[in-house]
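Hi team,

As requested, here is the filled-out complex form for the D-gluconic acid run. I kept the field names the same as last time so the parser does not choke. Let me know if anything looks off before we queue the next batch.

— J.
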Amino acid sequence: MREIFDLTGKVALVTGASRGLGRTLAEGLADFGADVVLVARSGEALERVAEQIRQKGRQAWVFPFDLSRVDEIPGLYERVVEATGGVDVLLNVAGIQRRALAKDISLEDWRAVLEVNLTAVFALSQAFARERISSGRPGNIVNIGSLMCEGHRPTTVAYTVSKGGIRQLTRALAVEWAQHGIRVNAIAPGYFATEMTKPLQENPELDAWVKRRAPLGRWGRPEELVGAAVFLASEASSYVTGHILFVDGGWLANL
Ligand code: GCO
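And here is what came back:
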């Protein structure tokens, strides 16, 4: 039964793979046998992650790319398929945060967040699905949502809307692509200790708020998302699609 979690022989593409959750999930999938395509802006940082993965005995490919260049995503994906022979699992992890009250945020910041957090996810998922459908092979997409799939913290309106979009995009693509053998799910992290949340971790009031609202009483650790990612990326979740899997320390269960 253990083999249902085995990713040996699978190629996974992970965006945002140079640091934070993306790096942790890329290395985590490699621990379960996957070969990994690493996408992020910094080629230098990606090479360091690739080296870690190769030391595990897995293959790693580095594709420096700025996901805000959405129109160039089909070309990126063609190069990835040429290099790898095809991708079995797509992990859409890359995301940016621009904090400001809704009355203050600039349209430039609003567009930047939605471009990377939502439109790029759609464009990459579409490129992935087109290749899977044309090659007649199954596929698995795992998006990264957030508690903001369900609610809002003031000063995060663009991020909240982008993650609400990820929730519905996950469901929409799951419904349309099931017939092609493509499952689409999302992991929705609660508050995790990453660079993105560093300003909150260092704010005593917000740090106390997180520890009070999460029944487990602490911030999540990035490695605590690996199990959920391997579950959704592997045959262990073969009858799961369109699902938003919250990994939030009990946050949403707490009134
Ligand atoms: C914030 C944070 C959140 C977290 C996470 C919570 O400013 O409140 O950035 O948005 O990143 O998404 O699930």
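Two things worth flagging: The chain is about 45% helix and 15% strand. The pocket of D-gluconic acid is lined by residues 97, 99, 146-148, 153, 156, 159, 189-191, 196-197, 200 (CB under 6 Å).

Thanks,
J.
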